[in-house]
Structures are given as structure tokens and as C-alpha cells.
Design goal:
single chain; 6 strands; six-stranded antiparallel sheet; 6 helices; alpha+beta
Amino acid sequence: TSSRLFIDQDLVLLRLLAERLNRSELLGELLETALQLLDDWLGFHHAIILLADERNGKLFTIASRGYPENGVGSEVGFGAGLIGMVARARRALRLSAIDHSLRYARAVRDRAEAVAGTDAVCREIPLPGLPCAACQIAVPLVTRGRMIGVLAVESTDPLAFMPREDTILTIIAAQLATGIEQLGGDTEESSPTT
């Protein structure tokens, strides 16, 4: 019965999230509401929303929360990293215990900067990220078969995201994708804070 209570609580939470997202009248309001609810209600303190540009095979950050830099305008290519792989596959992906891989990737980048110089390596707006992330999950934002973008969250807790969180984020992502598609004309409002 305790697992049934847990499922019932999740369903009520998802209903309340959907109701709050559906009240948004502007794209910026939708994005800020989604990030705030992920943070306040689900404890996902570090989240990024990226929009897809399928023609050019890229995603660009339109909102983030929980990072010192907001990264709005940063780009990720389809197939690049976790977020890019999610965009290409149109499937949720979860990584745990990633701190070792991140340290390796940063060491490679630091070496490239030392050899080629910082200007040669860092010309783009950096994607927001936790320096000590231990767990990440990214889910595609898809509606009516159209790739809208990717929602990504990360945590310093290596066990923060399990199948439950994967399912909840996938449901929220579907709601968010529909809202973004409907409100997409109001992009001048889309600058939520970090």
C-alpha cells in the first residue's frame, strides 16, 4: 500500500504541474514556471531547456535555473554529449556516476586550451553545468512527432535520478513541448533567470 500511496502522490503532483503549465500565456512565463516547479516541487535544482534547430542540427539554450551563468544562447550539436544524443535519438537518457568522465573531458579541454589558446577553444557561450555533477538526465521535448528541444537536469547526488524521475520528467517534457509549440511566437519574453 505504501507504493500505491507513492504512485498516487506522483499522479497528483503531475496533475498540479500540468495545470500550472497550462495557465502560462507567454513563452517566458511557461519556461520560468516549468523551471520553478522542477526546482520547488521535485527538487531538480539545476535544469536547462534547449530548443531544437533541426535544419542546422543544433540545440540552443533558452532557459536555465540553478547555475551562476544562465548560458542562454549556448549551442549543442545533435549527437554531441548527453543532450545532443537525446535530440538525435528522441529518447530520454540518464547518466550516473559521471564525475570521472567529466574530469577526463575537462582535462582534455584544458590541454587543448594550453596548446591552442583559450580563444581557439572557447568562442561560444558555455553551456551551463555543474562542475561536480554526478548524475544527469535529459528528455526530448517532442510534440506531434516534431522535435521541439530537450529538457536536461543534473545533480551532485549520483543516485538522484532513477526510473521514477525519468518517467516524471518524460511526462513533464511532453506537456512543456506542447506549451512551447503553442506559445513559440512570444520568444521575446523567453529570458528566465538562473
